[in-house]
Amino acid sequence: MVSLDERPVRPDRRADRANATIYRSVIRHQRTTSVARTFQYSSYYWLIDVEALPSLPPPLRPFARFRASDHLGDPAGTLAGNARQLLSDNGIDADQILLLTSPRTAGHVFNPLSVFYCLRGGEQVAAIAEVHNTYGGRHVYLLRPDDAGRDQVEKCFYVSPFLPMGGRYLMRTPVPGDRLSVSIALRIGPKTPFVATLTGDGVPATTGHIVAALLRWPLVTLRTSALIRWQGIRLWLRGIPVQPRPADATGGEQAR
Asked: What is the top-level taxon of the source organism (predicted)?
């Protein structure tokens, strides 16, 4: 079994942070099925306060747009209002919500995973894991993490054509501090056929750091989408059977 605790990160549950942070990140996928494979790539993520969106210099705005229509809830609403509505519908109150995501860049957006960290009095009370697949579908998992940022949910959304439906996700979403650490393990019975991790180091979202990220990872969301599709082709060429895609793979979001 793959361990999620090889590099433990102490959760930072404080809410007193800068307006926005950029995490220079590494995303790693590990498959332990009949054809074992590890896939890794670098990228960058933003951590923003949904009620205090970053104000960028005009030349940079096309490369970092944070739109409600790219995330959960009412496309005509706001990031903050939509997240708070989901929390309210489930009896949860938060006084601050931070969003870990990739922004819309040069008109394109694709986020395999975004995380809304929901805090009250500086303590994490919930997390919303928003998952997108490459078929245009979206699903949200409402988590109530323990002190280590862990919770479990039933898998109920089609993401990869090489993994079956069913099973449970063990998600670990501690509030980021100087370091970011998110992990998702799919468990089916006694086996863990898939583990994804997102780790990175944070820097303030200054103009210099934004420009550096754009130069190192140009068109970052388009690159992420292309890399995931290329890995799918490679898995198919290695003979991994394709799982049937359900009719609602592009359906609307739901929360558990």
From this structure: Bacteria
User: What's the DSSP call for residue 35?
Assistant: S
Q: What is the CATH number of the domain that holds 48?
A: 2.40.128
Range of the domain at 84: 20-237
User: Residue 8: exposed, middle, or buried by beta-carbon count in 10 A (0-12, 13-18, 19+)?
Assistant: exposed
Considering the domain boundaries, does residue 148 fall inside one?
yes
In this structure, is residue 134 part of a structural domain? yes
More confident of the two residues 191 and 142: 142
What is the number of structural domains in the chain? Answer: 1
pLDDT in tens, 155-204: 888 777 667 777 899 999 999 999 999 999 999 888 888 899 999 999 99
Q: Which amino acid is it at 1?
A: M
Q: Which pTM value belongs to this model?
A: 0.85
Whether residue 5 lies inside any domain: the answer is: no
